[in-house]
Amino acid sequence: MSNAESDKEYWRWTETRYTNPDIKWEEGTIISAGVDVGSVSTQAVVMVDGEIYCYSSMRTGSNSPDSANNAMEWALEGTGLSLDKIEYVVGTGYGRVNVPFSKRAITEIACHARGANFIYGPEIRTVLDMGGQDCKAIRCDQRGKVVSFLMNDKCAAGTGRGMEVFADLLQVHINDVGEMSLQVKEEPEPVSSTCVVFAKSEAVGLLREGWPKEKVLAAYCAAMAHRVVTLLLRLGIEEKFAITGGIAKNIGVVKRIEDELKLKAPEPSIDPQIAGAIGAALFAKALAEKQRKSG
Amino acid sequence: MKANYGYKDGSGEYFITIDTDLCNSCGKCVEACPAGVLELAENELDPLEEDLVAIVSENHRKKIKYSCAPCKPSGETKVPPCVKACEPGAITHSW
Questions:
Q1: Over 70: is that where the pLDDT of A6 sits?
Q2: Angle at B19 between CA B17 and CA B25, to 5 degrees
Q3: Quick one: CATH architecture of A125-265?
Q4: Which of A122, A123, A230, B47 could cysteine-pair with A142, CB 3.0–4.6 Å?
Q5: Which residues of A touch B22 (CB under 8 A)?
Q6: What's the whole-number mean pLDDT along residues B25-33?
Q7: What single DSSP character describes residue A159?
Q8: What are the domain boundaries of chain B?
Q9: pLDDT of A3 higher than 60
């Protein structure tokens, strides 16, 4: 694809990969991995004795097994590590049953709670996972075990896909949406529709009225924040509270959720989008240990 | 653990909550439900635990308003058969 063409893909977020230079996998006892095949993005995380060794985060294609393979291949690229040396792989996310090389599929709710516990620490009691196609509110204990959860997967309101639609409509790159939505002097009324399709029509109307892009984005981010806050309030919030998933990187939504809840979400030390895959890799480690004991 | 299955839409909130700490895996709710909404399965939210618990089956989660409607006649408050069948009182409905 030419640059000119890809420049127009405002929704296209940056794919990433990482290797931890301080870890030598040859010296590890248990090598485990988690693959989170989401509706929009796929992540593969490889852990050596419960520490992140390498990971990749990329777009999910139309084929779940291929996406899982590609993500894993990219994560392992240049590490010298190969798939057959990984003792246990857990699949999670929408495509969890379609990960060809996984031994077990675990729901993303359990994985996100465990992953948030790893990223943000054991004080986290409430996790909001804002994914590509659904949004989950999870309460967990100090070990990252789920205590209760609530999910909105009936519609795309409050999800990454909704944000992609708006980035595309307003021709603002998805990475800049959050920052731009904060550049308003005064908070506008939130977009009234919660449905992404209707919200888009409403936004088109606002643009015709002469609203600047920032103001429309502010109205949409506020609507999205409000939508997920109602989900959180139904479940009940206990401190500390953290956000995982791709939207956790959108400062415009995060800040508005914080303002509405009057709570501060901690800054992530690791990419919050890989929380699900981290959780899966941690479960894989526990299951590998269990397998060794029984076998 | 309290597992909430269901959704919220323009017409209201429809959630079945199953308290897995109370559930004793007896399976009476599964037999009691005329629509086959409930089933016994491994607790998917606690993967390291092997005990079976009652869950709302995957294909009913997004339509329980309709699946459960026959047990909820309008104008009268009736205890649904699944709630009645559950001796430890692990099942609650939000509507």
A1: no
A2: 115
A3: 2-Layer Sandwich (3.30)
A4: A122
A5: none
A6: 94
A7: S
A8: 2-93
A9: no
| B14 touches B70 (CB < 8 A) | no
Q: Considering only CB atoms, which chain B residues are within 8 Å of A107?
A: 44-45
Interchain contact, A153 vs B8, CB within 8 Å: no
Contact across the interface for A283 and B1, Cβ inside 8 Å: no
- Amino acid B67 reads S
Using CA atoms of A187, A188, A190, A196 in order, give the dihedral in degrees to the nearest 10: -110
How far is the CA of B49 from the CAs of A74, A235, B43, in angstroms?
33, 24, 7
Complex ipTM more than 0.90, yes or no: no
Question: Does the pLDDT of residue A295 top 80, yes or no?
Answer: no
Q: Which CATH architecture has domain A3-113+274-294?
A: 2-Layer Sandwich (3.30)
- What pTM value is reported for the model? 0.89
C-beta separation of A76 from A83 below 8 A: yes
Q: For strands A126-130 and A135-140, give the pairing.
A: antiparallel
pLDDT tens figures, A137-157: 999 999 999 999 988 767 777
* CATH code for residues B2-93: 3.30.70.20
In the block, tokens 């009940």 appear at: A236
**Distances in whole angstroms, Cα of residue A224 to Cα of each of A28, A243, A246:** 43, 14, 14
CATH 3.30.420.40 range(s) for chain A read 3-113+274-294, 125-265
For residues A179, A42, A145, A235, the Cα torsion angle rounded to the nearest 10 degrees is: 50
Joined together, the tokens standing for residue B20 give 């897995």
Q: What is the mean pLDDT of residues B35-47?
A: 90
Lookup: tokens for A188: 């506008």
Instruction: Among B45, B50, B59, pick the best mutation site for testing chain A contact (most A Cβ within 10 A).
Output: B45
CA distance A146 to chain B (A): 7
Residue A17 β-bridge partners: A56
Show the DSSP H helices in chain A as ranges: 3-7, 64-76, 108-120, 160-170, 177-181, 196-208, 213-235, 251-261, 275-294
Rounded Cα–Cα distance for residues A49 and A28 (Å):
6
Q: Where are the beta strands (DSSP E) in A13-73?
A: 16-19, 31-37, 41-48, 51-59
